[in-house]
Structure of Nipped-B protein:
Amino acid sequence: MVVEEILESVLEHARFHLITNIYSEMDPSYRYAPLEQEEEMPSEFIIHVGGRISKQKGGRAKKGFSLNRWDLTLLYFKLAELLESLSILVKSCVLTDTLVLQLSALALKPFFVENNSTLQLSALKLARNIFSKYPKHRHLLLDEIFQSLAKLPSNKRALRTYYLEPQTDGGEDPQGGSIQMVTALVMQLLQSIATVPRERSHLETDELISGLSLDAHLIGSIDEIVKTGQSFLTTLFKKCYATAPSKSEVDFRPIFENFVQDLITTLLLPHWPVSSTLLSIMCRLFLMTFTNKQAELSMRLAALEHVGNIISQCRSQMSENHTSSSPSYSPADEDISVIGKLLKSVPLEVKSKVLSSLQMKECMEIETDTEYEIKALVSFLLLLYLKEREEDSSIVSFWVGSWVRDLAASTEKEKTADLDDCQLVSPGISSAREQAFREFYLRLLTDTDPFKSASKICYKVTSQTATSLVRFLTANLSLLQNFSFYLNHLIRMVNETNVQLRTRAMKSLTSVLSVDPTLIGSSDLKTWVRTRMCDMSSMVRETTVELVGRSLQQRPELATEFYDILSERMLDTSIAVRKRVIRILRDSIHKMPPAVHTDLCVKLVMRVQEEKSVQQLIVGMFQDLWFSPLSSCNKEEEKKRAQSIYNVVFALDEPPGFTMVQELLTLLLKPDGIVDQQKRNLCRKITDSLVESILQLDEQGASLAKMIPMNATLHVLSLIDGSLLVSHLTALQPYLASHCTTQGELIGLTHLLRAFSNSIPLLVSHKPGPQFLASTEENLMKLSMASGSMIVEASLSCLAALVNSVTHNFKLVQECFCKFSECLERSHSMLLSNSSQLAQLKPIILRSLFTVGLLCRYFEIDTIIAKQKDGILPTRRVFSKLIYFAKQDIFPECQEKSLVGLGFFFLAHPSLMLEDEAIELYSECLSDVCVSKKCQVLTNLTNHLQEDEERLKRADKEWKKDGNDEGTLQDIGDKQSTLSSTMIQRFLPYVMNAFFTAEVRVRSHITGLLSMVLRQGLIYPAPCIPCLIAMVTDCNQAIREKAELMLEEMNHSNKLMHTQVVLGIRRSFDFLEILSSGVGLIRGREGMESKLFPVYNMVHNNRQQRRAFLLTMVRLFDDVDKQGIPFLLYVADNLACFNYSLLGEVLFVIHHISVHLSMAGPTLIDSFQESMGLKALSSQQGQQALDESAMLDTESLLRSEFCDDSRLATSVYHSYAIMLLLHLSSFLKSIYCLTDVRCHEYIPTAPSKVYDKLISRKLTPNLQFEPVEVVEALELSQDAKLVLRSRNELLQRFQEFYKLYKAIEVDGGESLPETYQTTYQSYTELFGETSELSEPGHNKQIPKDNQMKAPKKKSSKTNKNNTGGKHISTPNPKEKRKSIRSKRKFNYFESSEDSNCGSSTNEDM
């Protein structure tokens, strides 16, 4: 007792000086002691060093004094010596628990104080000895570490103040890196468990070699380390991720993340063998966590992240010089080389002594060493390095113990599915060899003779070679050899139902593949990558794209293999996915073959009208590809770029693609409206290269068809800058006289004519020769007289540019116009006189109708042609003739050509479109069944809007060019837009009605027209919403995408979606009926995808709009007679298959379905009772309440004299709407795993944060929304009223509804008859009634008896009120809804059982 009291006094004295004097000087955070520490000290006098306040008896405060630095230093080292002496005392004596606890507190405190390295080393020895000798106090020491970490300031919890051994010998700076002090402390404590019993040190060698007790002791110590480490890691992991830390709690996550990183850092250092054990334990813990579906989501996410980090970094460290693509690991060539050199330097005498216990040859060259001998020598050299460094003996014991333990495990030959913690020896060694190695390891641990003889070579084992030795010995570590095991588990996790888990699994795979990109070549991983590329979640798709991108950075040869799936993702709905794909393809485009290169460029050009950030990426990529600075002498690069450009232009030689190329080049060359001089020079070089290619092909005798790519590129470049082609017009002019016979030649000539028309107006400043001008006019006139419509339009456009800007030869135009107008006059007269020669003039009539309209478009005919005697303007006369021929059905092409000519005519004279004749003609054509006439009218309207827009742009450019800073072109814009707006408003109803057709061409034209109308803002957008909602359900993908974009922009700017939702849904249903041609039912889903989900997705982020949209759809069931059952089935399909992402969305729909059912169900049952005369019968019999069995008595109902068959049919018809809602409610509860308790607890007026929790539906292939009774009835009779044949069938159908209503709505499905089990259980059996909710943090289940108890009580109460034989009149449905809501809210707190259920579910949520 005296000794214990003395030790307690010594410990109290040491604690007092450490807290009072040492810690306050070493660490600034200890200079102001907490109040409780001051109260523990003697009240007579408390000394505070460093300027703190001292307190003396009597309550008078004085300023404390500072000790001299020399005294403080001396005290510091004396206390360090005291801790070392205490460590020796602990090791040699057995102390009481009280003293051990005080020593533990004294030993751990210095590790959480800065700037006291000497004291920490002494404390470390004391802590190690306590941890090693007193097993019962190990968990207390670890708990004390957690408590000390919690008391530290947040900025000091993750400091890396423990410096590792330098990588180069003799260095004083900590070049080897640093780790957390808590990491070093925990690993040192765990390693201290591996010790050799003191009583074994004096035994004979033979006794040690054959002594099984030493062997068992080492294996037991390693098992204890594994057990203690697992307990520590499990506790720390749960403290970090089990629950999100509140403001008052300590966040251990940074400490844990640094702890993992520290273990990876020390994996290959010989002084920290426990790091490999802890990493293996940690990976097993993480594997069990993320594969456990009952674990919390936060823990599963963290486990996935850390597993990917650990196995990737470990493989990176172990495989720095390793080139094998095998999932398992073998020693690297560089390590083998280093070890070979080291073994050659070992004398044969030393080698003989080391290998003597293995019974090997005494003399052996390194070339003849076997694998086992090398392993033995490497183990010896590693222990030699540790012993010569005078490291703690527990490190050597740990290495030997782990080797012996692995040998014992391999001897037992237990092949289990679980991974062993530290398999450091490869399996397959014979038992004799294992026994030899076991004896060899035990001799290394106890015999010092080999180490003494090898002391001369210890200097050759440096820290770097020691790392190679460790890497060689740990080549068979389970964490590395079972790399494929962990990889396969990560791959399986990408198929989880939870979006966050799939995303985190893909991120972990990304980190692994970034270390070893060869793994992506495996077929399984490729399959999963392709599957996740089409995942429903944009986060998963983005992470998968990033995974492929990381792999392509290191393996560019895979770019072609993954090109197909990456190019598909350029059309992804997520902007982030599209941007990431474009970045990846931008980096890989130079490594692709020419065909793939061109295809990629084409697809990127087609996305040039993307969102602004995506568009900038595309423009930047083509800027580097085509217009990066180029040296003047690099002709090959010029040809290569020119070829790349004309290949892309040729691939997009269609109206949409050609426009995209033009827009792209405009963004590249004219970002600010002015072409940069450097880019102009590059374009000039490209143009020269193109013209040179054309001339070379001409010399080779090639036709214009082979020149299409070059001519099309010249056309595009001339649209951007016409001056690029001016110097080449003379060389290209002979091609205008070419005789074209094939379609390819016509296309090539058309592009050349378009290029000429853009460049000819700039000839004024170049003063071309008269012979060139005359020859050009002659060629163009010949082309316009004898060629097809495509060449005629291009040649007249070019002729207009030449005549109006350069030659002013209007006489030529006058002659041409008079010739064709006279032909029309003559044809008109012959038509009036019914001449038989009219058919012979068909070609000239069609050409005249087409050419006259073009001439009126490109020339001022009223100025060129004088008025005739009747005073009618030539343009007015042309207008009347075109209108006349457009109404005459002379021959099939006449009306179409007249409409084409009118389109050209109206481009120059838009005011005439508002004439009654024009409005009548266009309206008739849009209502006509002829597809070609509809398309031509729509084309005319689209061209008119395009021309107005281009005209306004040119005028605005001229306005700014003239320096008009005051004012804008608003007035001009108003005049033009007023005319266009008036025109569109007159034709818009006909245009939108024309969309409802089965012809895709018509729908495509209308979609493009509406897009232009809304973009220019010519009308109020609300009337277009129903038509756009119908477009969203189109089977054509291009139409759907354009409609979604228009609706999204409209809803973003005007918030008008809710105003036209009902009409839009109805129009979409009508549209689908037209597409189906009346064959089959119209369903609102395809699989589990809703057809109206894009519309719902636009209002999803706004709670008010979202609720209004959903409530509108549910309220459609209020008026069954007006809507019809087929339409309500379409609505129910959409409500069932919307991909709801928030808990509040689903509960909101279920709640309002319940509200509707609570009113409509009892009302319908009352109506049935009245139609069958049951109420009158019950009153005659004197019954106060109607027996429910009477409604199921078919024979009595058939004999009823009071039956009204018409009312009965109406009741049956209305019952199908309620059946749809019953199925819908049951389906939503099942697929989102919601219990009845949770649904009844929902309060719509609760704050949004209460129910804004993520939720995801279960992915089950065979589960679909299928209301069997309604679908079967509609398939039998698809008319609006579901005509039934007999009263017996009517009764049977209503009784089916009644049983289903009672089973699902009242009893929760428990009392369903056998005939309806399939209907109800198809939703519940696949998931179970108590499935957990797929939302973050939800891992609880409500007991089954609690799930149904509260709803039963409530339902029975409702049943009494609603079916008690009295009809409740509700003149105002809104008041009834309010009363039901108030009753439901009151019932939540009416009984303790309901309150308990509600609290449990709220806790879950």
